[in-house]
User: Fold this.
Amino acid sequence: MTFGQRLAAATAQHGPLCVGIDPHPGLLAEWGLDDDVEGLRRFALTVLEGVGGHVAAVKPQAAFFERHGSQGVAVLEEVIAAGRDTGTLVIVDAKRGDIGSTMSAYADAFLRDGSPLAGDALTVSPYLGFGSLDPAVDLALATGRGLFVLCLTSNTEGQEVQHARTSDGVSIAARMASRAAALNADANPLGSIGLVVGATVGDAAERTGVDLDAVNGPLLAPGVGAQGAGSRELARVFGSARRLVLASSSRAVLAAGPSPAALRAAGRAAADEAAAALAL
Assistant:
């Protein structure tokens, strides 16, 4: 099965929610854990113990593992493997983007069969040109994995690039979305090349001419729940493309820890809230 097919099945079973695994120092402290490799490991694996097998996807943020050096990366590898064992899709949030052989190496690290860093999908940055992602696109599609391409992010600085228009009047964000749409054109029920679109970007898609409906791939939407996006905001951002949205929630779920049972209940509640907020 393709990533798009697996994601469609997972959201049908568990609801349109991805739980971020973001072990930043503040959350470790809230859980009574030290900001070291052992605290990192206990945090991440406890999240999986709680929500693994009960939500559509989890999304470990690679930077919070990498800040602990090689031992932290080893924990990330363990988390990816543990997520796979629970049957939960793992989206590795590493936002990689480069050119030529370097992009090929990133693709090999995060998308190759047998790589310990390879989950089910990877976040990538297209702002060296969408074509720079070709090694990742090719390998993802060849191995049944997916990509989430940064398109409309919630940080204000992103508008400098994403909202800019080329000489033909087309915005950069719209161009990125159309390239993803072309890759998903024949996919059923859902393509494997998705976009990252912040749940709090308001009418940015309309203003930049991004046709989210046409993407025919998953729309990973950070900012749902504790970060402020409810049904009204989601309707404004995504319109009729809400059927494609995979809501990403971190703090709203992680704050329930460190009890695995409490994390599971928070994940279930967040999934139900996302499904209600995204209903057409």
Summary: DSSP finds 13 helices and eight strands in the chain. The longest strand covers residues 89-96. The chain has a mean pLDDT of 96. The longest helix spans residues 260-278.
